[in-house]
Design brief:
Distance between the termini: 104 Å
Oligomer: single chain
Shape: flat
Bound molecules: zinc ion
Amino acid sequence: MYDILKWINEEKSARSHLKGLANKMAEELDQIRETTSPLLTIGSTSSSLTTAGTSLAHNTAWKHGRSVKLKHMEIQQLQTSLQKEIDAKQRIQEELKECQAENILKAEENLRLKEEIDKLQKQLTCEQTKQLTKSPITQSVSDDLSTFINNTSIDRFLRNVTAGLSDSPALLNDTNNDLSATFDDGSSGGDDSSRTMSGSLNKNQTIRPLVPLRNELHDFMIANFHVTAMCDDCQNALIGIVRQGFVCQRCKLICHPDCMEKISTPCRPSIKDRSRTILLDQHIVRIPKAGGIKKGWSKYQLLNLQTKLLFYELSSDKDQKITWPQPAFIIDLTDDEFIVSSVTSSDAYHANKKDVSSIFKISILKLSSPKQFQHTLVLTNNESEKNQYVNMLSDLSSKVKTLKQTGATRGANFIAKELFDTSKCSSLKETTAAVILDQDRLIACGEDGLYLLDISKDTSTKLSDKRVHQLSLISNNELLVTLAGKQRTIRLQSLKSLLEHPLSPLDSKIIETKNATTFTVHSTSLVLCVAIKNRILVYQLFSTPKPYHYSFIREFNIIQNVTYLEISTININQTEQQILWYGYPSTFIAQRLDQQCPSVSLLRDEDPTLQFFRDRPIEALRVVPVTNSSSINELLLVFRELGIYVSCSTGMRTRHRELMWTALPISTAFSDPYLLIYTEKSVDIYDVPSATWLQSLPLSRTRSLTFDGCICLSHDAELLNHHSKLLYLIQKTNSNPLLNVPERASSKSLATRGGRFRVGGGVVGTIKSTTSSSIAPISGPKDFTHISHLGKGEGLQIISGLKQVSPTSTLSSINHSSSGSTLNTNNRRSLISGPQNFVHLTHIGPSDISTFASDLSTTNTTTNKAVISAPMNFRHQVHIGHNDEIDQLNSNNNNNNNNNTRKGVTYEQQTNSVLLKQQQQQVTSSGNSTLSSQSLSFKDEDDSDQPLE
Ligand SMILES: [Zn+2]
Ligand SMILES: [Zn+2]
């Protein structure tokens, strides 16, 4: 700049000098003209007098011509001098450029040299550690194969798991180092970030690529795995959709990116086939198929990843579309209610008797309110293997618990509570978004409008008729911004008036936003950004006066359709800056809103292994700031197939570790510092700063409705009886929740609270079966359709009516209801179908079960009932059709052989009677005094069920 100013000044002075010169010359010329003109006149007079007049005229013309000529010359002279000056300046500029380029080159060379030094130092330390750790153990791995397969499979598994566990603090330390390293980078890159973000992308900026991971012994390449794989170093599973790990090009050794640099086993191309067969044979267990043990068992491979157990189905009829190893389900050992135990024959009714000793059971918490567990039966090869698994897993879970208690490991500790049962408002089944209004109320988009849900009262009120796709509540909960209607336009609405006059048209529509795909609005600055295909419109909203008005600020045109949009306030160099993040396939862009400046791509790494981003479109889901202390220097880019950490300032990758999902995300949420990934099988929670997978909630087919994921909609088949549920995800330790979710302990308490019975509210345990289909206890949702709700009075009627019901007709009514045909009496129907009548009476421990089970055939009815009523032990094993049941009963009577199948059926029959009894008890509790005689009459009927033909 200074140089340019200088040149300009020089030029100015030169010009003024030239002007002065020109003036001088003009004056001189005039003088010359004056002196020469008399001579000319003399000459002309001497030549001819007659031509004097004309020559005079000629003279003046000549004079004029000469002056013009002179002027021309003058101008030409000036022009040439100017040209010379310009040329000189250009030369100087070129020289300057050359100097600059040279400087840049030198700086780059310096950097390269520095990197090389770093690399060499790293190699040196690597070599040193290798020499230290070289021991006979690592050498002997390849030696004795047979003993390895036969004996150590489980031992090894155990070691792996424990190793994985003990590794985790170390891992955290590692990441801390990483973080501090990025911090250091950040402090130097802080200036860069402001430069980048302010748009003047300086070419001199140091863009430092990540030093690639290297291992001197092997030739590792990043790879996509299509089948289950395990790290040969830490023995943990490789998870993810793409780029799950590294494979040695020579010996086919597999490892995690985290483990690659520390691998010290030599490269032996001859052992590659061996390692693959080991993996195929390892950790094979069986889990009951959908429909229960009676349907058989499916083979699974059980792998672990630190504190998670991953079950991969090994059946051949796998979904062909899935091209990566996707766990069928995940069990998180950090679950506080995790229990692993052996089973008795009563736990696994339909199992082969000889198998029972090889089966163990894992229970984890699925829902914390109402409390609901997920039980998984696992069949191993033999009893000793089972014992090993049980011991190993219980050891591990107790270790995890103590670690958690001492605070040594960080856990996410999210729990799920039922917020609202959408069966009460069917249009909420497919709700797409929700916002929290206050501790008791929230607003949710239904299929046909907007609803106000009061969770303390369990009520819903329709607020608007318009189909709402997305909503946002800003300006102290005053202004409701929605993307609504068939035309998908943005509407601004006063929430207060909407609550006062529901269904009133108070829309203030932004007409230009027709066909909007998505929007984002900043809660404090009230800046609204709307994406319409490949355009982004920016508006300023005003909180007053009503109806809300807005003003258009600007428009951005993007090369592709925008799928993600978010305004974020981030702190760069102690100044808050509003940045719009948006995404289209394979790309995330940052755009500053407060200044006119060009947009910046957030992933600018030229890493050739990231080529796949350019090869095919990968959905861009969200940008997550990695917050540590005050300022943000790092971002996590969440793509549909993986998460990548980049520097906020340079767009270069900052970590080798990429976040891997267990399956493709259905939706994502961010609750600082946790990233929540909702997949078909689970809700996985990641800690963003440390890039670790902390927790996995066993909620399938669930998706987030809010930005932070605290409200979500679950279609989990085990949670519901054919309808979705709104769930509330919250940290267990959170003492200040946004919502006051009423504890739904049991159906009984709800019955008293709401004055009515409740569907699906009871404490139930479910057997986790193969995939999505579930086996609900007693009230099998498939053939146990809910027909009607019972009020207090109705229940009474039914019970009195039951006296006259003959055992035969009771049974037939069961069969009828299961086959869906009509029934004669409403009373019987409701009795059978009502899962809401089932009350949890008592929990029974494992030791109790065996005694009860052995007593079962001989004991009197009262004892049986106690056994049956315990929901912990009672599990519906199989659904029985019309004919099955009669057959079962027949065989029950004819055959004295005490087999499991029969017992299961007996249970079912008895359950019905228990249902009756419990219903009766509820009635009693509500003030009926004629219980005892009716109870007796029930018993009679129960007993007469048995000899039925
Ligand atoms: Zn590993
Ligand atoms: Zn190798």
